[in-house]
Amino acid sequence: MQIRLTVNGEERVVETTATTRLLDLLRTDLKLTGTKEGCGKGECGACTVLLNGQLVASCLLLAPQADRAEIITIEGIGSAEGLDPIQESYLEAGAVQCGFCTPGMILASKKLLEENPRPTVEEIRRGLSGNLCRCTGYHKIIAAVRLSAQKMADKGEGKDE
Amino acid sequence: MKKRGRGIATIMFGFGYGEGFPDHSIAAIEIKEQGPILVKTAAADVGQGVLTVLTQIAAEVLRVAPDRIVLSAGDTALTKNAGSTSATRQTYFTGSAVQKAAEGVLALLYHYGSLALHCNHPELVVKDGRVYRYDRPDHFMSYQELARLAHEKGELLQAEASFFPRTDAPDPETGQGERVYVAYTFMTQIAEVEVDTATGLVEVLRFDTALDLGKALNPQAVEGQIEGGTVMGMGMALMEEQVIKAGITLNPDLTGYLIPTALDCPPFYSRLVENKDAAGPFGAKGIGEPVTIGATPALANAIYAAIGIRFFELPITPDKIIKALRQEQGTNG
Ligand code: FES
Ligand code: FES
């Protein structure tokens, strides 16, 4: 079967099957390997992507469920030349160790900051609690989200002037 | 009722395989006619940051910015044995091998530089990818040009080095030995907890760490490793439990086997003690395992300080705490 979806702003038509996971469509068919598979059963958040603006575990969705949807993966956030403020903050705060959780963490951070541009530490902890990290102690990831909020606020103020 | 307590743990950790095992690492560094400086090592980075640190070490010795260095990590066609990423050994062993290889390349830069610029090596400046005479800074040769010179002579601008320190097997009777491990890392941690006596839940409020690591090659990465290691120790103390029945793991997933999430982890305060007492690169010692080990006894002690009960089986889960509190009440009342 054929599905049509927008991935990182680009319209894609993909030949797939009814039992293909969205995760495999992204990684194998579209070669977007930034999205990771940790557990394959909705427990770790490594496969997180945004589907119509909602955080989803792409290992739990079937590709046809993404028909006509708009997907943002980590490849759609910033670029090598121009990092997103969240990515910049993760680097500066030292929030990336092995990096396996990072794509999902960054998408979860993005969603959190969109809904709540000035989150408290408790709100950040809650917002990231669906994403497991085995390398850091989350401390620097939380610091990165706070730094992102600061950077985005500074930018916003810059615009107003 | 919520009860607070603090617990402390101090550990001493001998790292590397030790005990007379032939533990070593081999690294090579090559400067080519074009492109960045290549560090060849089989050391595996699993999130602890060894490749970052190796890049820093090579850059420091070769006097270039870290972005001039690339690593061919784990390419078995190009690299030789670096030993395992285990036993808290990669920074110390491969770091030392890379430092020695870089020193070998630095010596070659002086060698080919003095040939090319017709002077003795004390008259040379080797810095920022250039070699020149003190009195003629404009008349320089790049590291890459010196590589071409070496190639013209049928030689390579490359050095390979190994780090192979001796250790001794301990006496089987006494457990003593002259040098059982290459060096020791020391750490003290304090955990502060709040135990809810109604639910048995333990909330970890903060962790303070003092770590004697010789020298922090990358302080931010050291903190990251302290925090991540401590959280593993926290998991072991409070929730991680593999349930095995008749040889089969009953909870082979992250719903049944819980690991700490962002909601479970406290803020960390770390102090790095740079007490150089070992022969590692720039005085650095290994920290990987020590930082995972102290958290568990520190938490067990903190729980004891909070509710006055000692636990001798891990993890100290809410049901065990409730049961112990009830028993205590029973015997007291
Ligand atoms: S891989 Fe999808 S949640 Fe773990
Ligand atoms: S950085 Fe390794 S899992 Fe988060």
- Indicate how many domains the architecture of chain B comprises: 2
Would you report the number of β strands of chain A? Answer: 5
- Sheet having the most strands of chain A: 5 strands, mixed
Q: Percent range for helical residues of chain B? A: 25-40%
| Number of spatially distinct domains of chain A | 2
- Strand content range of chain A: 5-15%
What structural keywords apply?
heterodimer, A: 161 residues, Ubiquitin-like (UB roll), DNA polymerase, domain 1, five-stranded mixed sheet, B: 333 residues, alpha+beta, four-stranded mixed sheet, 7 helices, 13 strands, 25% strand, elongated, binds FE2/S2 (inorganic) cluster
3D architecture notes:
The complex is a heterodimer of chains A (161) and B (333). In chain A, helix 2 packs across helix 5 (139-160). Chain A contains 5 helices and 5 strands, in the order E-E-H-E-E-E-H-H-H-H. The N and C termini of chain A lie far apart (51 Å). Chain A has 2 domains: 2-76, Beta-grasp domain (Ubiquitin-like (UB roll)); 85-154, [2Fe-2S]-binding domain (DNA polymerase, domain 1). In chain A, a hairpin with a 2-residue loop joins strand 1 and strand 2 (10-15). Chain A has a 5-stranded mixed beta sheet with strand order 2-1-5-3-4, with helices on both faces. Chain A is an alpha+beta fold and 161 residues long. The longest helix of chain A has 22 residues, at 139-160. In chain A, 37% of the residues lie in helices and 14% in strands. Chain A is globular and about 45 Å long. With 333 residues, chain B is an alpha+beta fold. Chain B folds into 2 domains: 2-14 and 181-331, Aldehyde Oxidoreductase, domain 4 (2-Layer Sandwich); 25-163, Aldehyde oxidase/xanthine dehydrogenase, molybdopterin binding domain (Aldehyde Oxidoreductase, domain 4). In chain B, the strands form 4 sheets. Chain B has a 4-stranded mixed beta sheet with strand order 1-9-10-13. In chain B, helix 4 packs across helix 6. The interface between A and B is medium-sized, with 27 and 28 residues.
